[in-house]
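Figure-free illustration: sequence to structure, shown twice.
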Amino acid sequence: MSSGAGTRGADQAYYGLPTFCYEARVRLGVAVLLSLAGCDAVLDGLPQRPIREPLIPSATVDASAPAASSSAPPAPVVDAAVKPPPVRPPPVGPPPVPTTLVDAGAVAFTPSRGCLRATETPAYLFCLQQLLQDQAVLSCEALGMELASLETAEEDQLVTGVATLLPSTYWLSGKFEAGGWTWPNGDVFWVRAQPDLSYSNWIPGQPETQMGDNCLVLRTDGAQGWADEVCTRTFGFICEQPAP
C-alpha cells in the first residue's frame, strides 16, 4: 500500500469517519463539512489533524509555459465619429440594351452602338434609351444619322412593323411650328385646315396640339400610329441613315 493510502486509512481510523465524511473533509475543509448532513455529529468535538495528502493529486505545472489568460480579448475600439458610407439606391436609367442577338419572330435584332438594328431595316436604329426629343436629335447625329422622318406610307409601314416587335414610344423628328406639323427639311405634312396635305398616320383623335404638345412620337405599345407629345417628356427614338 502506498504512503498516501496509509495516511488516509490512519486519518479515517483516528476520527472514526465514514469514507464520505472523510473525503468531504479533505475537499471542503472542516468549516464547510460541518454543514453537511450526517457529518456534523461525527466531527463534533474531534481534534483537528492536518491532512497530509489530498485525495486528488494536483496537476503538474510547467513553469516554462505561458500562463493562460482567463479574460476575453479586448473588444475593438470603435470611433463614434467615423460613420459607415450611406447606402444609396441603384440609379434609375434606361433599360439595358441586349448584348446578344434578339430574335423577335421573323426579324432579328443585333446591338449596334447602344441601339438595336433590325435585319429587315438596316438603315434604322431603334434606341430604347429615354431622352428628350432634342437630345435624341443629338444622339442620332453623334452616330452619323438623323432622327427618323417617316415621309411616305412605305417607309412608315416598314419602320412601324419592326418597331411593334419592340413595343414602346419613340421620338420622330416632326414638330408643330407656325400652325403646322413639319419635318426638319421644312416640308409641312399636316395642317388642320388641310389634313390631307401630305402623308400622315395619326392615331384617331390625334393630333390634339394642346399647349406644349409640339413634338411627334410613334407609338407601338397600344394604339399604333403617330401622336403629339410634350417635348419635355422622355422616350426612346429611331435614327435613320441620311439620304445620299
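We now fold a second protein in the same way, so the two outputs can be compared directly.
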Amino acid sequence: MDKVLLKGNEAMAEAAVRAGGLAYFSYPITPQSEIAEYLSHRMPEVGGVFLQAESEIAVAYMVFGAGLQAGCEVAWVPSYSPEMRGGTAYCTVVLSSRPIGSPIIEQPKHLVATNRPALEQFAAEVKPAGVVIINSSLIDTATNRNDLDELKVPTLEIARASGNVKAANIVALAALVAKSKIIALPFIR
C-alpha cells in the first residue's frame, strides 16, 4: 500500500470511506469544509454518494429520497414562515407502504424539533407513541407528555465533535431514523 500524506480532516474522511461509508450528506454549501471537499471527489471513485444540502428542508428531501430508494410511497409539503431566514420552517414528509391520498396530516407520528418555537407549535399534535427528537443544544424544555418516545439530542455538540457544526440537522435525521425505525439506516447512508 502506498503512503499518502493527508490533512487531518481528509484523513478522517478517508477513514470513513475505508470503514464502509458510502454516502455523505453535507450542509451548508458555504463555508466549504475539507471533509466535504475531499468526499465530493472520493465518493464517486468508490461508488458512493455525495450530496450537499443547503438547509434543514433539504434534509427532508433526503428522507424523501431514502423512502423512494426503499420502495415507499412518498409525499412531502414544505412550509416557510414569512420571514424565511431566521423564521420557522418545517416540512411534512409522509412515507407509506400504501398510496398516499394527501400529504397533509393533522396528527404526525414523529417530530424533529430543532428549535423551541417548533417544539411549542407541533409537540401537542404528535400521535401518542410517536417519536419526538428534541435538539437539546437549543431547547431547554420537554414536551411534558408521557405518551411519547422523547429523545433529547445535543445535535450541535455532536456535529461540532465531528468537525462540522453545520451538520447538526444530519445528526437529528440520524437520531429520528434510529429511534423511530421509519426507514432502514442503510437507505440514508
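Summary for the second example: Strands lie at 23-26, 49-52, 73-80, 89-96, 110-113, 131-135, 149-153.
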